[in-house]
User: Which sequence fits this backbone?
């Protein structure tokens, strides 16, 4: 049994998320990962943007800021540069991070500031009632995709790896234990680490796509997520409609602040 | 001796999603009136998958020897 | 600091003013005619224990300075018209979350891309009403390179004292002009730092104003863990759906600025005491207007100048004291009457208002204003 209570703000539960929403599972994974790191609550800051996922920081007892839609990484950049001692975590949904916040996302990957981003990807705009997002799979239903999703969707992990993120991983809420470990590995990485967690939105994605129960979203994850080791042995046909999970990409590169302080001759006064 | 689990349910936090019921490998849990209930406590093997996947902090499992 | 006498560009003077005030973070994005501020601070900040970053866009630049301020570092960004438009959502956030920071807008001609190297004063209303919703606003209008320096120090002081973003509305002429300025030694000009909580962290309520209307701000990382949101929130910082609480908190935010008019609003009054005609002008136009006053006086016409250094809150009281004394007020501005409308509101028919407007990116000359004086 893990005791979450010391990390939760008193009197804030139940949270606002719908029955079966994956975000609560991610919140628990995040707490366990922070606990495993032994981070002090005072020296941990969490920033989020707008959307269902971005309500998470309100429930956890750290230095938390719920910012504007898509902009959380830019706020977090200021926080980290002003006080590098803080462990900085950024959270957001797929719309927040890959649509309205897409520009900040790719540039954060390029910059490699030492902080961790968790993208809680439920393939839909949940808070506004189920409009398609950049990660809604092709052909799937959404309130603004009445004929099915017409656009191609982002592969978030590929996107951030391409933009230069030095740690890229993917987990799911079904694989909750592994997801916790992945987040912990991301925290340990010195540089900009991105963890995409596949989360279910039974209310607004599921009901449009014959998966209206929370557990059916998890079953979908169980049936489509493939551990990286197995993924690498699979052919193209086998890979269709599936995705790899695990630590997908990792490289050592000096983080932004170390480079800045060295090249600009920064001296703390 | 096999591990056994003591399950605690915080009913007011349970939103009735039934994730815990669906994935319990020993069918320990059941839904009643949109809330989770313990059906067969003795069958629990303390795998704690219900606790891990409960989005609502509504269920926890303590391992007993 | 480089104290002493210097021949300096207006934008540089803002950078040095920021350093003097204790600014140790700049997040920016290049835009004419403000870029020199970023360039100067990219050189100077690391030498002073601060950091500079060029963000990916204007929106991110504004977000980054709010983040840095939350973490306890005085922060600046600089932009111009269209960039200022992009920053508005996060300026609203800073108002709502009561985060001190300073935003420079070196005004250029618009709308849209407009005339990027042409001067303008057409963001007076954007500074006040650019973000959605009702919110308090402090905006400052320097008119000399010396004031670019000293008003930047004052902008930081007001921002820290009242826990609010402060806008510096400079313009292309002052920003790019070079003049002699004197930078005082550290400690000569007052530098105000935000008040920090002294209560135990368990008692801390980040939006509860115990003494006056300004709540005490804790920095992230100092043991006072709390929540900040752009949602309407109660004194604890957590979101509320109560319209009553939302209204109460917003009225407090308005009051913290409005009730401190005398501390915030500064206006230079030049030969106004006996004036029949008062010219009302800010920034580059105020320079021409001062010349007009001197020429008119030499012709025997009693003219004075009201030159606001604070344009928001609008200097109503300073204007109203001339009702019944001056007969005419001439508002000169490089836009189509944004200040004129406000002066008309403040005087409410008590003084005859005339206006000299220009939007062709050329400065308003002393002769132009003098012509208007002769028409009175």
Assistant:
């Amino acid at each position: 049994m893990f005791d979450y209570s010391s990390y939760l703000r008193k009197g804030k539960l139940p949270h606002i998320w719908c029955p079966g929403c994956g975000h609560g599972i991610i919140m628990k994974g995040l707490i366990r990962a922070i606990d495993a790191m032994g981070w002090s609550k005072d020296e941990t800051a969490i920033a989020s943007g707008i959307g269902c996922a971005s309500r998470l920081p309100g429930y956890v007892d750290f230095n938390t800021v719920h910012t504007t839609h898509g902009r959380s990484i830019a706020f977090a950049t200021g926080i980290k540069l002003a006080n590098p001692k803080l462990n900085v975590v950024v959270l957001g949904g797929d719309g927040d991070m890959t649509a309205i916040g897409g520009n900040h996302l790719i540039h954060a990957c390029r910059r490699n500031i030492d902080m961790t981003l968790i993208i809680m990807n439920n393939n839909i705009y949940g808070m506004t009632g189920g409009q398609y997002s950049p990660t809604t799979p092709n052909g799937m239903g959404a309130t603004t995709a009445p004929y099915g999703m017409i656009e191609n969707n982002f592969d978030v992990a590929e996107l951030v790896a391409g933009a230069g993120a030095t740690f890229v991983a993917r987990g799911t809420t079904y694989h909750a234990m592994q997801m916790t470990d992945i987040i912990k590995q991301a925290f340990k990485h010195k540089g900009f680490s991105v963890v995409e967690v596949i989360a279910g939105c039974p209310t607004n994605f599921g009901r449009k796509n014959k998966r209206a129960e929370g557990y059916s979203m998890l079953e979908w994850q169980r049936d489509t997520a493939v551990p990286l080791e197995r993924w690498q042995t699979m052919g193209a046909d086998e890979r269709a409609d599936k995705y790899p999970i695990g630590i997908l990409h990792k490289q050592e590169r000096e983080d932004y602040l170390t480079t800045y302080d060295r090249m600009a001759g920064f001296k703390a006064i | 001796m096999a591990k056994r689990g003591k399950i605690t349910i915080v009913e007011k936090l349970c939103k009735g999603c039934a994730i815990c019921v669906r994935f319990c490998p020993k069918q320990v849990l059941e839904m009643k009136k949109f809330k989770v209930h313990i059906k067969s406590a003795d069958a629990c093997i303390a795998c704690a998958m219900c606790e891990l996947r409960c989005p609502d902090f509504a269920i926890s499992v303590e391992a007993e020897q | 600091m480089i104290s002493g006498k210097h021949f300096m560009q207006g934008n540089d003077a803002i950078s040095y003013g920021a350093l003097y005030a204790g600014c140790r973070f700049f997040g920016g994005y290049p835009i004419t005619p403000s870029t020199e501020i970023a360039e100067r601070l990219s050189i100077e900040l690391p030498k002073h224990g601060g950091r500079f970053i060029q963000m990916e866009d204007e929106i991110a630049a504004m977000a980054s300075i709010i983040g840095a301020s939350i973490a306890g570092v005085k922060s600046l960004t600089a932009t111009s018209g269209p960039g200022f438009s992009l920053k508005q959502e996060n300026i609203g956030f800073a108002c709502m979350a009561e985060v001190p920071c300073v935003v420079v807008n070196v005004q250029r001609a618009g709308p849209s891309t407009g005339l990027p190297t042409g001067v303008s004063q057409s963001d007076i209303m954007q500074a006040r009403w650019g973000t959605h919703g009702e919110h308090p606003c402090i905006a400052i209008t320097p008119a000399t390179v010396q004031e670019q320096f000293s008003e930047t120090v004052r902008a930081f002081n007001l921002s820290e004292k009242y826990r609010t973003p402060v806008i510096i509305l400079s313009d292309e002429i002052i920003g790019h002009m070079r003049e002699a300025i004197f930078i005082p030694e550290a400690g000569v000009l007052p530098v105000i730092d935000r008040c920090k909580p002294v209560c135990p962290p368990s008692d801390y309520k980040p939006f509860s104003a115990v003494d006056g209307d300004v709540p005490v701000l804790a920095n992230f990382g100092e043991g006072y863990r709390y929540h900040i949101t752009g949602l309407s929130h109660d004194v604890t910082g957590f979101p509320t759906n109560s319209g009553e609480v939302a209204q109460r908190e917003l009225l407090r935010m308005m009051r913290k600025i409005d009730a401190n008019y005398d501390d915030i609003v500064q206006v230079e009054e030049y030969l106004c005491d006996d004036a029949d005609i008062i010219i009302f002008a800010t920034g580059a136009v105020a320079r021409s207007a001062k010349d007009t006053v001197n020429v008119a006086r030499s012709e025997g016409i009693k003219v004075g100048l009201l030159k606001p250094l604070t344009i928001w809150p609008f200097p109503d009281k300073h204007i109203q004291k001339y009702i019944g004394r001056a007969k005419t007020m001439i508002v000169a501005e490089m836009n189509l009457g944004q200040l004129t409308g406000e002066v008309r509101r403040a005087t409410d028919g008590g003084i005859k208002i005339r206006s000299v407007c220009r939007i062709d990116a050329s400065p308003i000359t002393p002769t132009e204003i003098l012509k208007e004086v002769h028409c009175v």
